[in-house]
Amino acid sequence: MPFPQFLIAVAAALFTATADAVILYRTDLVDENTDAPGMAFPHDGWDFEGSYGGFLGTPIGLRFFITAKHVSGGTGSVLVFQDALTLDTDSYTAIREYRDPTSDLVIMEVDKTFPYFAALYTREDEAGQRIVNIGRGTDRGAPIYYENDPMQLRGWSHGTASQTRRWGENIIASAFNYSPEWDLLVADFDQNGLPNECHLSGGDSGGAAFIEDGGVWKLAGINFAIDSGFFSQPDGTTGFGGAIFDLRGFYYASDGGFLQFDPNSPTPIPTAFYPTRISTKLPWIYSVIDPAGDYDSNGRPNLLDYALKINAPPPGAWSAPFVAVEGGFVALTYRKISGAPQLQYQIEKSFDLATWTAVTAQESVASTTEYVQTIEAKVPVGSSEGFFLRLLITQ
Fold first, then answer.
1. Where in the chain is the domain with CATH 2.60.40.10?
2. How far is the C-alpha of 147 from the C-alpha of 303, rounded, in Å?
3. What sections of the chain are H helices per DSSP?
4. Does the domain at residues 322-394 carry the CATH identifier 2.60.40.10?
5. Region for 6 from its dihedrals, namely left if φ exceeds 0, alpha if ψ lies in -120 to 50, beta otherwise
6. Under 8 Å between Cβ of 210 and 151
7. Spatial separation of the C-alpha atoms in residues 218 and 58, rounded to whole Å
8. What CATH architecture is 4-277?
9. Model confidence pLDDT, tens digit, residues 326-346
């Protein structure tokens, strides 16, 4: 289960000479799991990862890659990507940045074409599925014992940071709504987990979680955060954190002081890591990487679908502009995503449906819900016998 009160982003990366990343339960050897898993391309998702500064990025279109927003270097930043089929390595420079207004995801458009890219996991059935997770975080540090008793190992601290890519595996326990329009997957660091049971640490942000779906490895999540920090021994020693597989008896910080994890729990209480869930971000993703397409086959292009649908649940799942005559004005009411500066909304006017010109409307915000504004745009009728209005949405 997630502990949101101490869920922290896993961004911090130091530049040292050690060679570790994703933390493994079974070993602290520095050369473990630094080669591609799997038997063939794409090696359980390994071949879809590129180096992005001290972090990772995943191509999801011919000229687009996705990563964590909190590690984005903006336009001009570079993804270094190796073609696993030819072994050629190339650098891809970001020319545009598309930030999801409601999560930690960012998509970068680059200056050239990737040789291949990852498919997206589209079903919301991740719970119970095995993932392969890839990151560039810290090594496994010193052991953490309950009450400093070497017979009661509970986990390991985060060790020295590095930039070497490592993979591990885990089972998705569940998913939950972290904030409006933003779901996280939950992967517990279980003591009796998979052979390559893993946790994350600082520097693993932007890395990816892959699920095998019908023989195809698909992108299911982008590493965002972990449970860490503000744990305490029963004797009051505070401030430690790490890859802990059993929190029973430890204390954690809360608004009212420190609270204790149940020391008598019949099962271990593990910490977890949290990738941002891809399957619930498809409208935004496809509006960026394929704006003219129709990924859900509903008859509307992806960009228009996202810009007006705005991920809203039924029954208000899609909202076309509403037109009314008010006095000497034609009022066009539409919904607008206020946190997506790349989306441009423009009222246009035509007398013959062939030639359109931009008009300056008197706009006012009728209401705001989360990141969605309802805009009323008024256009004066003047002396015209009649005309047409449309809302043009571009990116």
1. 322-394
2. 56
3. 282-289, 302-309
4. yes
5. alpha
6. no
7. 11
8. Beta Barrel (2.40)
9. 888 888 888 888 777 778 889
- Token couple for 315: 């029954």
Residues forming CATH 2.40.10 domain(s) in the chain: 4-277
> Hey, what amino acid is at 84?
A
What does the alpha-carbon distance between residue 372 and residue 335 come to, in Å, rounded to a whole number?
7
State the average pLDDT over residues 14-37.
70
Q: Please name the residue that has the structure tokens 């050629």.
A: 88
CB-based contact 227:2 (threshold 8 Å): yes
Q: Which helix (H) or strand (E) holds 303?
A: helix 302-309
Name which of 8, 20, 2, 29 is nearest 242 in CA terms: 8
Q: Which residue has the higher pLDDT, 9 or 26?
A: 26
Q: What is the pLDDT of residue 131?
A: 97
Q: What is the pTM of this model?
A: 0.87
Residue pLDDT, tens place only, 83-113: 999 999 999 999 999 999 899 999 999 999 9
Token pair, residue 91, equals 């650098």
Q: In the predicted model, what is the mean pLDDT of residues 158-187? A: 91
**How far is it, in rounded angstroms, from Cα 48 to Cα 318?**
34
Task: Look at the block and give the residue holding tokens 């246009």.
Answer: 348
Phi/psi of residue 179, nearest 5 degrees: -160, 170
